[in-house]
């Protein structure tokens, strides 16, 4: 399912459906297409699904950090004229959603995180010393998933292109350092937004104990597990992911 990319002011985004806005935040090397199944499902359930293209590689190096991305998200919410939104983020996108919620809690109705950074960042931006070796990059991309077949040639090619682009690699490493600096362990206990945590039981990038720690630290959170699932649950088990999230949204009245 392909949606047309809208380009307005400094923003590029996909939008589908009508109703309560769900803003979806992609990860460091995650394309907008990673959320095709999410956008298709929720746009049919009376939600307005918006997936902005985050300026991960287009901001200046000084602004390539979690804080700037969270402010960019806030600017996007103001641009769209939303009073309150639901944020859904995977990996770095989860971290951006969390940091935005810390800074602008009044704009966030609910938060959904899956495989989020923010507590454990050792895997971000590492392991690219042999970045010119396609097979090494292919293996690294496959390790993101429980089922390596999910890492299609298109996904591997995109990761390979990114880590072999010097400008993008420098910014990838800058983001990894920023994620460590913006560790949220001290912030989470003060964040009372309802949060749905959906985690792969076999996630090796942000292991299961990270999901448990998010659940322990966030005062109003619910944790759900998906078995035989790695770092990107919405790609690997889209139906389970959507069912869990929809049931949670209904239970919480969103």
Summary keywords:
single chain, alpha/beta, eight-stranded mixed β-sheet, globular
Summarize the structure.
It is built from nine helices and eight strands. With 254 residues, the protein is an alpha/beta fold.
CATH class: Alpha Beta
Largest sheet: 8 strands, mixed
Question: What's the SSE pattern?
Answer: EEEHEHEHEHHHEHEHH
Q: How many angstroms separate the termini? A: 25 Å
* Strands ordered across the widest β-sheet: 1-2-4-3-5-6-7-8
CATH topology type = Rossmann fold
Q: Report the C-alpha radius of gyration, rounded.
A: 17 Å
Helical content class: 25-40%
Supply the number of helical segments. 9
Give the overall form: globular
CATH superfamily: Alpha/Beta hydrolase fold, catalytic domain
Q: From the helix content, strand content and strand pairing, which structural class follows?
A: alpha/beta
Task: Explain this structure.
The protein has 9 helices and 8 strands. Helix 1 packs across helix 9 (238-252), helix 2 (66-80) packs across helix 3 (92-103) and helix 4 crosses helix 5. A hairpin with a 2-residue loop joins strand 1 (6-8) and strand 2. The protein has an 8-stranded mixed sheet, sandwiched between helices. The chain has 254 residues and is an alpha/beta fold. Helices cover 39% and strands 18% of the residues. The two termini are 25 Å apart. The chain has helices at residues 36-43, 66-80, 92-103, 134-142, 153-163, 166-181, 208-217, 233-236, 238-252, and strands at 6-8, 11-16, 20-25, 47-52, 85-90, 108-114, 195-200, 221-226. The model has no long low-confidence stretch (mean pLDDT 92). It is globular. The protein has a single domain (6-252), classed as Alpha/Beta hydrolase fold, catalytic domain (Rossmann fold).
């Amino acid at each position: 399912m392909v949606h047309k990319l809208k380009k307005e002011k400094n923003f590029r985004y996909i939008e589908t459906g009508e109703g309560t806005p769900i803003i979806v935040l992609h990860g460091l090397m995650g394309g907008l297409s990673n959320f095709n199944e999410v956008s298709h499902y929720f746009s049919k359930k009376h939600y307005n699904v918006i997936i902005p293209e985050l300026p991960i590689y287009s901001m200046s190096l000084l602004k390539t950090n979690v804080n700037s991305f969270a402010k960019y998200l806030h600017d996007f919410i103001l641009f769209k004229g939303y009073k309150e939104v639901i944020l859904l983020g995977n990996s770095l996108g989860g971290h951006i959603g969390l940091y935005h919620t810390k800074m602008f809690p009044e704009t966030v109705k609910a938060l959904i995180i899956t495989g989020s950074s923010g507590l454990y960042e050792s895997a971000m931006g590492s392991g690219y010393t042999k970045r010119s070796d396609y097979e090494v990059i292919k293996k690294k991309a496959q390790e993101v998933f429980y089922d390596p077949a999910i890492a299609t040639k298109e996904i591997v090619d995109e990761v390979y292109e990114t880590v072999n682009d010097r400008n993008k690699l420098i910014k990838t490493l800058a983001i990894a350092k920023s994620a460590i600096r913006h560790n949220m362990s001290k912030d989470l206990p003060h964040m009372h937004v309802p949060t749905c945590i959906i985690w792969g039981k076999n996630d090796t990038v942000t292991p299961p104990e990270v999901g448990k720690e998010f659940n322990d630290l966030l005062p109003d959170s619910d944790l759900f597990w998906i078995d035989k699932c790695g770092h990107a649950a919405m790609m690997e088990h889209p139906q389970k992911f959507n069912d869990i999230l929809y049931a949670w949204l209904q239970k919480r009245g969103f």
